[in-house]
User: Fold these one by one.
Assistant:
Number 1:
Amino acid sequence: MTKKRIAKNLGKIKVKSSKIHGRGVYAKKHIKKGEKIIEYVGRIITKKQSEEIAERQIQKSKRKKKRGAVYIFELNKRYDIDGDTPWNKAKYINHSCSPNAETVDEDGHIWIIAIRDIQKGEEITYNYGYSFENYKDHQCKCGSENCVGYILAEKYWPLLKKEKNNLSR
Ligand SMILES: C[S@@+](CC[C@H](N)C(=O)[O-])C[C@H]1O[C@@H](n2cnc3c(N)ncnc32)[C@H](O)[C@@H]1O
Ligand SMILES: [Zn+2]
């Protein structure tokens, strides 16, 4: 399945280098809580295609001596979005443990939506929602006060705390 979607660019963002990692997405103007910022677009692909593409993207990053940038968005249990297209600026949004945006699925369209007011010039971030499995492979450099140290869905934070406590005993 290879359906292409073109980005609805609402003109609210720009891409530039980020303190968190590589490039990031920044607000070009004040964005109000609840506002749509940008749609995450790309080819709809199967999980099998997704694994192959992710591996290729990791190898490409290694060749360019960058740390693994993978542009795959998990759509549902069957399909993902291959976001590695020039017209998908949302692919540059970094993860934060204290994000100012979230992703919302509106009938299969993934929107990045502000969860609080965002000032002009602020980096736009959301929680990638990664699972606990292999969490140590995904160190977080978001720099926020409550950074848990790993790119991890918030629902796993208590589990992480428990594991850290057990290790320190
Ligand atoms: C979709 S890319 C985000 C854009 C990326 N900064 C770039 O320049 O291509 C996802 C990758 O960015 C990096 N990344 C995003 N958020 C991060 C964070 N909070 N801490 C460390 N690395 C992060 C990880 O390597 C992750 O696999
Ligand atoms: Zn963090």
Note: Residues 47-63 form the longest helix (17 residues).
Number 2:
Amino acid sequence: MGRVSGKKAIITGGAQGLGEATAKMLAREGAKVAITDINGEGAEKIAAEINAELGDGTAFAWQHDVTDGERWKTVVQEAHDAMGGLNILVNNAGIGSLGSVEDEDYAMFQKVMTVDVDSIFLGCKYAIPLMRDHGLGSIINISSIAGIIASGNYVSYNTAKAAVRHLSKSIALHCAKTGGQIRSNSVHPVFINTPILDRTKEMFGEAEALAKLGRQIPLGKVGEPDDIAYAVLYLASDESKLVTGIELKVDGGISAM
Ligand SMILES: NC(=O)c1ccc[n+]([C@@H]2O[C@H](COP(=O)([O-])OP(=O)(O)OC[C@H]3O[C@@H](n4cnc5c(N)ncnc54)[C@H](O)[C@@H]3O)[C@@H](O)[C@H]2O)c1
């Protein structure tokens, strides 16, 4: 308990999946959390669950499409004011798309880039100036193992998540040079059992889908949301105060092959 005690965090895409698990983990470890999502009702539901468990004023919610730069400005300022500061930004919201360079629609390619990459540029652009006033800060960008290992039918997702990896490093070096208080790292999950896998489960049935995906991973199974939330917790806490510009792979060994 208390690994991020007193810290204030924004988590995008926090209405479900990895964002929900991360928001709950950070709150249980002592942080105040601002949960944002394009699904505003979902964000409010998770904030209410956290407040019921940990007390009112622990969690706050905003409806926010992370591709909207103007809304980013408002949300970071309002979250900062509601929580009494800002130390942690978890850029988690993201979408995937299946398709090769020949099959993928150009509009979809651009959408994935906007949601997965532009959102992080915007979030960091507007959050960093507010984070600077509050001591040690940490930016955690959720990439994917698909940002390191490519496959023929993930052209948009591979491209976007690889960009997140390098964007995180550029931000890390900029922040190191301008005061050194704020760190920036990327996290690279392998398949994790969240609603993002719903389509695969519909195609093969849940048990077969999880088994099929698990067989691709040396440790033999799909991950749980808390496997990623624990990685974010470490990077968010001051335990990792010398860690910046890294890519933390939580991948069951797949990238070791
Ligand atoms: N689950 C996995 O297997 C896995 C593996 C590697 C990386 N990731 C990455 O982790 C992150 C979270 O994934 P997840 O599995 O929890 O997915 P998910 O689909 O369960 O949840 C994503 C959340 O992001 C929100 N969102 C989508 N578009 C948005 C937008 N434009 N603005 C604001 N919110 C938006 C959704 O409403 C949803 O609540 C994503 O960036 C994803 O690419 C997931």
Note: Residues 12-13, 15-19, 37-39, 42, 64-67, 92-96, 115, 142, 144, 189, 191-192, 194-196 surround nicotinamide-adenine-dinucleotide (CB under 6 Å).
